């Protein structure tokens, strides 16, 4: 290895270790960001303090009103709640609806969902001993969550917030109705129904006589939905990348707030909104409407790593109100796992919340990889064996490309003795060696890029699988060999310290075995390859897998297992193809026959040869000029 190659490799390591330093914001930028965050925090604290004061004042008024006669109480609360004054006083109670899949707990205060227990799934937590434990999985259970309507009551500037009302409860079978009376047979009601064996909850608003209670100009009822996403998975950093606030307008493609930005907001107007979904990596809480909501504003905020919550998601949804004497508005909740087939059957394109990727990657995952995986899962219970079979089937599908790659490598191997003779003839003149090598390749019908194109064509499938494993709930908490969760990293060995750049404080055995198998496969393929023109490429082949270890160490173990199986099958395919399908003697005879045929100078090889000859000519002219004696200065 010459001095330039050593310097190049050293620079690669330096860049890899220092890139975060150079890309990191300056101290001035950090200070400015901190000041901005502090200002926002102060404003939020002030806002929260004012809200607390207002709520405390309201509670004191309600408490005082509860201790006086009904007539006086109505008069005291009427200025704040109007005809809903009687509903502003009460005691919070809970009601439960349950089926085989979920248990939903409601509160009569606000008539909202207070907690959802997802029965067939569990949350993974890590104890002080760093061992994984499963506990019951709850959604929508954060006390900071809000789900409240602002009712545009006449004469009240800020309307009436349903979060302040105690609804009357009517529980019948698998449904419960929360009703807030406004007197004279007028009321606002919310009805929830939970059928059996489903994660879908039917939800209906009822407006009886509200045309006389609401402002005449009211065309919409504002719904504010704030959801603090819990940290459900073991790999929080990974979970954050796949959690967001999704939405879809009728007859339009779905959209989402950016899952990676610290703060992201979307304003959906123009077309009716079909649904809004608060989405974790593997679960979602969605509100859907067949008719569509008028509009929606959404915002997603990533919370600090030390926070107990993952993200804060906010939606402000405009529910249409026609102003009729009696009307209803039907909706549905979906609160459960991101099971693609189940969501797809629901319609409304709700399956878009599964983060399979966009464009060609998403298409490959949804309509090629996923159906194939579903078929294999139907046959085989072990998800690890399914990954192995999936790898085998993908390799079988791509074998024509792999064969062309191996065939091209074999042709280049057959010419290696000829290339060695060229090196002996031209010595250190690397440019001349390259030019003659390209001429020889064209003469024998060898495409030097023939081994590269098949690999490039496989990249879309590889990238699709990179998104498939951490997005498929079927791999969640599925064990295989030493891995306890194929959707997260396998923690084969725990480190007593944390390695930065996303490596973590563990060693993934699947990732480590992938690196070792890649190095073995690279060594085997490099034995008969010529790197004299660019020696640094030889060392880069071995450096890159080691660098990628830092990335795959915290990736889904299902992906690392797939890559390991893929490498092992690559080695097997290469050996079998070279020893059983390619006859080197016949290949050499075929190349000799091709050499005797007349050829047209066209294509990439001819252009490369012409370019090298031109470079050689310019180099020779420059050398001659350098050797000519320079005229003496007088």
Automatic annotation (TrEMBL):
Belongs to the OXA1/ALB3/YidC family. Type 1 subfamily. GO terms for molecular function: membrane insertase activity. Residues 96-373 form the Membrane insertase YidC N-terminal domain. Residues 615-624 have a biased composition (Basic and acidic residues). InterPro entries: Membr_insert_YidC, Membr_insert_YidC_N, YidC/ALB3/OXA1/COX18, YidC/Oxa/ALB_C, YidC_ALB_C, YidC_periplasmic_sf. It comes from the Bacteria. One of its GO terms (cellular component) is plasma membrane. Keywords: Cell inner membrane, Cell membrane, Chaperone, Membrane, Protein transport, Transmembrane, Transmembrane helix, Transport. It is a multi-pass membrane protein. This is Membrane protein insertase YidC. It comes from Haliscomenobacter hydrossis (strain ATCC 27775 / DSM 1100 / LMG 10767 / O). Gene3D superfamilies: 2.70.98.90. Required for the insertion and/or proper folding and/or complex formation of integral membrane proteins into the membrane. Involved in integration of membrane proteins that insert both dependently and independently of the Sec translocase complex, as well as at least some lipoproteins. Aids folding of multispanning membrane proteins. One of its GO terms (biological process) is protein transport. It is found in: Cell inner membrane. The gene is yidC. Its main location: membrane. Interacts with the Sec translocase complex via SecD. Specifically interacts with transmembrane segments of nascent integral membrane proteins during membrane integration. Residues 384-577 form the Membrane insertase YidC/Oxa/ALB C-terminal domain. The chain crosses the membrane at residues 7-24, 375-398, 444-465, 506-524, 536-553. Residues 615-634 are annotated as: Disordered.
